[in-house]
Amino acid sequence: MYKYLLNLHTFDTVINATTSQATGNDLRPEIKTYYSDYLIDLAEAELVHDQFGQKRNIPAGSGKTIEFRKFNPLAKITNALVEGVTPEGQALDTSAITATVSQYGGYVVITDLLDLTAIDNVKTEAVQLIGSQAGRSLDTVVREILNGGTNVQYHEGERANRAAITASDTLTVKAIRAAVRTLKRQNAKTINGDFVGIIHPDVSYDLMSDPNWVEWQKYTSPEHMYENEIGKIAGVRFVETTEGKIFEGAGASGMDIYSTLIIAANAYGTTNIEGGGLQLIVKQKGSAGTADPLDQRSTVGWKATKTAERLVEDYMVRIETACTFNE
User: pTM of the full predicted structure?
Assistant: First the structure.
């Protein structure tokens, strides 16, 4: 009967201690690392929209603005060189795109009685929950920025706007090929040989019915697949997420419209969640002083600094469609 009892003292710290990832040394170093890594691992699992952007660290003491630098293509040279004559050099054409970072965060309260009587380690469960929350929250921040892009295709390109999309306008291979054509005409570069697509499972159901759909295990291996990758078709590798953008009630007859993003290299940039971008913060019982006079409450929370920015509108196409399961 004793095999189900856990030693909660494994996670004990000194009395009245306060801990966080960034400050304090009162949480055992190995436990601190365990919690921190656990949070980042869980958060990364939810960051589907984040994984294809240029990553930028957030240096401490550098203000709230982060800069992404874009190099514009050099013009073609069609004049032949003159023998013995050095031509004039060309200046690099660069432009800076800036974005303002914001902070996000949340926490849960754990009472001393819950910590004392629970069979499972409550703090570990709390880290799991807030890790998922952090990942989904930060992924939504990036998702909303990406879906604000101006390069949009309504169904296969024949609909005038979102409101004109009907229930029969589900995602098709023809729509994917049209988006790929748009990217290729802009000389957009692939990511590891293919473009990538971010798709909602309601929509991927329709696309996977095509006989040319290829499951991920037939062309890649687990160590080389993207987070949540499901397969490929028409030169696009797709990752699936229930956090895919839905424009609720925006289509014909008030039905929901789904966004599928087809992305090329260097389409957008994001801030990194590591190196100060994401923190685990644990406050032990009694750390609040007179606000917790009986040492009754501890908290587990997260705080992150995050933003994203579209760098080249032509390098990403948003396909808007209905789906078979749309009500």
Answer: 0.82
